[in-house]
Amino acid sequence: METSPASTTEGMDKNYWELRLYIAGQTPKSVAALANLKKYCVQHLQGRYKLEVIDLLINPQLAEGDQILAIPTLVRKVPVPIRKIIGLSADNPGTLEGFRQQITEWRASGAAGGPRAEEKFQTLMGKYLDMVPNLPYADRSELLFQLQVERLKSGPDAQQALYKKEQGLRRDINELENDIATLQTNLEFFARSKNANQLREEYQGRIDEAKVRIDALKKQLKIVRS
Hints:
By secondary structure, this protein is α+β, with helices and mostly antiparallel strands. It is built from six helices and five strands. A five-stranded mixed β-sheet has the order 1-3-2-4-5, with helices on one face. The longest helix is centred in the last third of the chain and has 32 residues, at 158-189. The radius of gyration is 25 Å and the shape is elongated.
């Protein structure tokens, strides 16, 4: 976390600005945002501002206070009311194109590679997708899974990691298929009971949920093997 010096806040007037810039590593957008902001402050707010720079790859928990959903984001804390000058909002939502651009810039920045940094970046991208209007949950999950697989493929033990992921998916699919077989057997067994209709509805619902889950896992398996 970097803080630029400023004059004392005692007796501050409405011309005093307190700014907080959220970035995630040294991506081109983050570097450009910081450079442009510093230039603006020197030219227009000399001696009348405080600038705090927060790298969310180092301090991801600090994003919650200002509800940061994309980076870079500039928050003006003072003068009130608090405003997000850069970033996503209901009037400036995320897009799939913006999501892909964030990933491209992250890869190009050289900050990618460390497992902890990659996990934090994936968390930020999940928050970004939350701001993409009308994005189905299944599509969101698939995009984040693709990002996770890309991380595994770029790791030092890519082949072993991908094999482990594939085996885990196959195991989950097999367990769900066994669950479906058991539920279907129960349906036949309780077909003539007094509560047959209620049981049929309950078991069929669980079977349908398992099939949906299997379809999603098979899509993930295809991504891993691609």
